[in-house]
């Protein structure tokens, strides 16, 4: 029998760091996975096929981000039941998560495949790359079950305190993806369908590894009766999952809007923005991982009513986010030309990227801290303000780019991101403080927000 991992006991710092590092490696490998895909497709198939695959990225993020938000929301309910040591509720919650995920998979697959061509036309996709975009999209969305299966299995494992198994799964799938992407293009001479098929297959491998681990966990050994419909459990899962899914999709819409304006400025601007976006995604991974850690840690301890530990965990995760800012923010501010030159060749593109990197590097602490406080709210089963913050992110991002792009040009893209980050972190930070302060007041041992009582601990 495989043991689960209780995050409600032991030294807070040690528990969090043991959970954090495997997840960090997982997230970094996924970034390598994406970069390797881009390099192999670009070098092996050429610019047009690469443009076709890249053209699908925002739409893919919109659909997959929605499903990822749902499964992450489901994991909050699972972790809370596990932290409360309520085995019956835990099994019902896991079973209901599986059923809801299956229904959502069918719905998202049907919608994305049926409307793919219409959406690509709406996004003004060039006829030159339309055929490849459709082929790639039909395969990716047709195999959406594999992505959702992995996300659900990995989310359940993390809810139970296991961040190592998803890491092992990503190691195997990354190796498979890189090797067989190369084989599909250079040996089998396939087009964009090759990388798409390999992506689906690698997700199946990841899901299978995580599922094999889940089957060994006694606490979630499921019998048929747990799969009977339970309206209350469904509502609890959807209460956490739907707002997180909406938040991800709304964020995607804001990013797509900025991309639309950047594309209108010319190819050089598109190239610079693409390179900068890759750096932002890479450099925020440690803080993003700290946020994911905060979610699992908070969920379990919330279920166990260990509110003091939530605050202790918050301090550790914020320290990780702050170190991340100091390291990567400094790299962006002091070495922008070096970073830009690694991805871009033209002097104009490099100069544009430097504008974005310096400004964003100064303020990237806002999004680093955002990951922690937003996931803290979600971990306590309070998804409303994170969802509202997603709307505000989109509004700020779109408003700044629309108002200022004519006056200050490309620099408006960095200010749009900064405005979105700052607005979201202020809302989530205030919400997290109010929620946790309320619980600590109810907790007879809670004293972290009251310095005078701290001495009597």
Which features does this protein show?
457 residues; mainly alpha; 2 domains; 19 helices; disordered C terminus
Descriptive report:
- By secondary structure, this protein is an all-alpha fold.
- It has two domains: 8-246, no CATH class; 266-451, no CATH class.
- It has 19 helices and no strands.
- The chain has helices at residues 12-45, 47-55, 57-83, 87-114, 116-122, 127-142, 144-159, 164-187, 193-214, 231-265, 267-283, 285-303, 307-334, 336-343, 347-363, 365-379, 384-408, 411-442, 451-454.
- Helix 7 (144-159) runs parallel beside helix 9 (193-214).
- The longest helix has 35 residues, at 231-265.
- The protein is globular.
- Mean pLDDT is 85; it is low at 449-457.
What's the short story on this structure?
The chain is mainly α and 457 residues long. It has helices spanning 12-45, 47-55, 57-83, 87-114, 116-122, 127-142, 144-159, 164-187, 193-214, 231-265, 267-283, 285-303, 307-334, 336-343, 347-363, 365-379, 384-408, 411-442, 451-454. The longest helix has 35 residues, at 231-265.
């Amino acid at each position: 029998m495989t043991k689960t991992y209780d995050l409600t006991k032991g030294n807070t710092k040690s528990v969090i760091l043991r959970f954090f590092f495997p997840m960090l490696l997982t997230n970094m490998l996924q970034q390598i996975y994406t970069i390797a895909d881009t390099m192999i497709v670009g070098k092996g198939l050429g610019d047009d096929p690469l443009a076709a695959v890249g053209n699908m990225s925002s739409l893919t993020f919109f659909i997959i981000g929605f499903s990822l938000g749902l499964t992450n929301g489901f994991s909050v309910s699972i972790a809370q039941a596990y932290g409360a040591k309520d085995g019956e509720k835990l099994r019902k919650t896991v079973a209901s998560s599986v059923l809801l995920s299956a229904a959502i998979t069918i719905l998202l697959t049907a919608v994305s495949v049926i409307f793919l061509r219409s959406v690509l036309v709406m996004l003004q996709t060039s006829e030159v790359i339309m055929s490849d975009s459709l082929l790639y999209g039909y395969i990716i969305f047709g195999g959406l079950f594999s992505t959702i299966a992995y996300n659900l299995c990995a989310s359940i494992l993390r809810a139970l305190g296991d961040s190592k198994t998803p890491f092992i799964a990503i190691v195997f799938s990354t190796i498979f993806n890189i090797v067989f992407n190369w084989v599909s293009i250079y040996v089998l001479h396939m087009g964009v369908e090759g990388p798409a098929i390999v992506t689906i297959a690698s997700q199946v491998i990841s899901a299978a590894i995580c599922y094999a681990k889940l089957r060994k966990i006694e606490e979630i050994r499921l019998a048929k009766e747990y799969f009977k419909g339970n309206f209350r459990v469904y509502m609890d899962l959807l209460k956490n999952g739907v707002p997180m899914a909406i938040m991800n999709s709304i964020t995607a819409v804001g990013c797509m809007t900025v991309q639309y304006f950047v594309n209108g400025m010319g190819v050089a601007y598109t190239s610079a923005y693409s390179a900068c976006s890759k750096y932002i995604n890479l450099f925020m991974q440690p803080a993003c991982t700290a946020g994911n850690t905060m979610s699992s840690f908070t969920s379990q301890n919330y279920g166990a009513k260990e509110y003091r530990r939530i605050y202790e965990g918050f301090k550790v995760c914020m320290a990780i986010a702050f170190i991340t800012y100091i390291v990567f923010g400094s790299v962006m501010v002091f070495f922008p030309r070096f970073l830009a030159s690694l991805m871009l060749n033209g002097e104009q593109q490099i100069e544009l990227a430097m504008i974005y990197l310096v400004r964003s590097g100064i303020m990237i602490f806002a999004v680093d801290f955002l990951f922690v406080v937003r996931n803290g709210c979600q971990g306590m089963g309070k998804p409303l303000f994170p969802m509202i913050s997603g709307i505000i992110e989109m509004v700020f991002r779109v408003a700044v780019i629309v108002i200022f792009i004519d006056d200050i040009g490309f620099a408006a893209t960095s200010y749009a991101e900064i405005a979105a980050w700052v607005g979201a972190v202020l809302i989530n930070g205030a919400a997290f403080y109010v929620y946790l302060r309320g619980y600590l007041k109810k907790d007879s041992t809670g004293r972290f927000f009251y310095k005078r009582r701290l001495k009597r601990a």
